[in-house]
Amino acid sequence: xxxxxxxxxxxVMVCGVLLGLPPVExxxxxxxxxxxxxxxxSMDYVNPWQSHGGQMVTxxxxxxxxxxxxxxxxxxxxxxxxxxxxxxxxxKYTATVEALGQDYDLALLRVEDPEFFRGVSPLEFGGLxxxxxxxxxxxxxxxxxxxxxxxGVVSRIEVIPYTQSERELLxxxxxxxxxxxxxxxxxxxxxxxxxxxxxxxxxSQNIGYMIPAPVIAHFLDEVARGxxxxxxxxxxxxxxxxxxxxRRYYGMPETEGGVVVTHVAPFSSADGLLQEGDVILALDxxxxxxxxxxxxxxxxxxxxxxxxxxxxxxxxLTVKYRRGGASRTLPIGLKRFPDLVPPANASxxxxxxxxxxxxxxxxxxxxxxxxxxVPGFDSESLIPLSFKxxxxxxxxxxxxxxxxxxxxxxxxxxxxxxGYHGHQFELITKVNGQAFDSFKEFVLLVExxxxxxxxxxxxxxxxxxxxxxxxxxxTEDIIKRNHIPSRCSEDVSLWLKx
Length: 498
Fold this sequence. Notes:
By secondary structure, the protein is of the alpha+beta class. The protein has helices at residues 213-225, 244-249, 305-309, 365-372, 379-382, 385-392, 439-447, 468-481, 490-497; strands at residues 2-5, 8-9, 33-40, 55-64, 68-71, 79-86, 93-101, 106-110, 134-139, 148-161, 168-174, 186-189, 192-202, 208-212, 232-233, 236-240, 259-264, 279-283, 286-287, 293-295, 301-303, 316-323, 326-333, 335-336, 352-355, 358-362, 406-411, 426-431, 434-435, 453-458, 463-467.
């Protein structure tokens, strides 16, 4: 089963057909519904000094208060030019991104031309619908040129990972048809926005997910504060306490819920405050059950992460926990999760550094996704095992407290690096025998080297030795021959100027 986003990719602009002709909800003015046309150019993370080239993406959106357009973040990712068209107007207008919330898969667009908003009534927001409530999805999916309207019911409300960011947030499953091109379209109930179409499941039919109104409100609140900082996390792994032997082992009363902390992520909100073996009993006064859920609405429960994700980065979370047989309460300042391997879409441009024709970058989900996009292959099998180990295997626990992992992504052939041309997609662990914890530290170790040689060591203990002076002289010629604009990315260039 595969979760997929529902943006429409391709060089041909296609959109949705009117499916089933369900009645438009009372009070809904289709003039507030928008088709989004995006020219985009994504970066090549294997060769991070270049891009993949231009493509066309189409999605959906709607006009909300403040003369803004609400859509998905993945609709406008890597955009170079955006146009929007109202359902009631054949003219396309130029738009720009006002705010981007990758964690929430939401974006706000701005159109400067006031004519675009003339005579338009913005859509207003409703609350969180109930199970079995009827909802209507508006958008421009593949199959035609006109607005598509589909209806369905709310079938599930739960916390799931969003495909765009891998962040676990409140989501609503509906059985209305959501197809490529629907991304960013509003989901309405009683004429009010209760969600934004986000992603579907393949190969299942009529199983789609929408971003619910509370998550949208959280994003808009962040924008009003001045920036979208993303979703905070506590930074712990936990295990349920449903097993009676486990409960007796930790000295838990029969009537007490809670989950056991099995790992505290380095640099996270809980780092240095909670520890393995603590039993989390409540978050902000909300009791955590033995299965790790919290009460939500009448007869409904959600994963306990919902309490945390409903807060903003920088806010305090009161954690009640049991340690050594005693209950304690601790306020913890919330941070974003310190991913060792950044999730997809975490940065606009990848960092890179070229030395002696060896191209280095940072291990990221975006880099791994380059293999997943290879047509005609079992693409997951192409990803190096060591990458998987650090991304979602035991290495993700980051017991070594590293901030980043450095990858030798490419070798640009030259006499100075003969014999190393087969080295590619390897993790580099040491420079001249010295370990490092970040890409910046790695770059500075190379740049500040005063020895005759620079020795790069990979995870397999193999050493790539370059004569320092020869490598430095060759670098500029290598990047010119390969039409590379610079030997390093902009962020690395700033480090070198420090």
